[in-house]
Structures are given as structure tokens and as C-alpha cells.
Amino acid sequence: MRRMTIGILGCCAITAAGCGSGSTFANRPRPPIPVNLTVYINDARVSVSPDRLGAGPIVFIVTNQASHAENLQIQASGQSVADTGPINPQANATVKVTVPPGTYTMTTNTGGATDAALATASTIQPARLLIGPPRPSAKNEVLQP
């Protein structure tokens, strides 16, 4: 009886020692904490604050203080990265984007649904956003998703 118990315990110990060997786990760092950027649109220009930051997740909080509805487009190298859709005057919109390093332009066009309204060039001056190297991981930040 005693030999059988020792034998079973020896087999269990060998089996437990072999568990987990040969497998790898990719311990990827957490993404950076999202940064809130405020975008202000009026009849003359688009402004963004801050206008320089590191790459990673960004939440654009857009307010339209222009006299008519506007769409905000975020572009990089002529390609659209994000679009808010029409924002009514005195209204707000939110856009979440994860951006790599580069230069981004925020332009507007009227929120009209007609072809003539869409073809009309906006007189509102665009804003420029500079995105630098990636921000550090949020691995040591508490209470983050």
C-alpha cells in the first residue's frame, strides 16, 4: 500500500513539473491612456488643443460654434481617418481614433445634403495636428480599462 502511494505521488509530481513547459505567452503592454483633444469650429477657423502629442488613442471632443452645420474630417496624407458627420450649430460630437505618428489636418465642409452644398468649398481655415512618437504604456496606471 505504501509503495503504491509513493508511486502515485511520484507520477503526480512528474506530471505537475511538466505542465506549462513549451508554451509561450505574449505579454503585450497595455495601450497608452486616451488623450482628450478639444476641437473648436467657428465661422473663420478650426482650432485644436493641444496641437502636438504622442501617437496612441485620442478622443476628439468637437464643438460647432459656426452659424451652420459642419462636418469635421480628420485627414492624413489626403486620406480620411475619421469623420464626425453633420454637427448642428451649438452642438457637440465625439470621435475616438488611434493614430500613428504623422501630420493630420482637420477640415470642415457644410453639413448640407444637396450636391451643391457638398461641392461648395469651405471658407473655414483648417487646423493642423502633429503626432509624434508613441506615448508610453498605461501598464502602471490604476483604475484604467
What does this structure look like?
Strands 1, 2, 3, 4, 5, 6, 7 and 8 form an 8-stranded mixed β-sheet that branches. The protein is 15% helix and 46% strand. The protein is α+β, with helices and mostly antiparallel strands and 145 residues long. The model has no long low-confidence stretch (mean pLDDT 83). It has helices at residues 2-18, 115-119, and strands at residues 35-41, 46-49, 52-64, 70-76, 79-87, 91-99, 102-110, 127-134. The chain is built from 2 helices and 8 strands; from the N terminus they run αβββββββαβ. It has a domain at 35-134: Sandwich (Immunoglobulin-like). The N and C termini lie far apart (54 Å).
Write the layout of secondary structure elements.
Elements: H1 2-18, E1 35-41, E2 46-49, E3 52-64, E4 70-76, E5 79-87, E6 91-99, E7 102-110, H2 115-119, E8 127-134
Parallel strand pairs: 1-3, 3-8
Antiparallel strand pairs: 1-2, 3-6, 4-5, 4-7, 7-8
The total count of helices amounts to 2
CATH class of the domain at 35-134: Mainly Beta
CATH homolog superfamily of the domain at 35-134: Cupredoxins -  blue copper proteins
- Specify Rg, calculated over alpha carbons: 26 Å
CATH architecture classification of the domain at 35-134: Sandwich
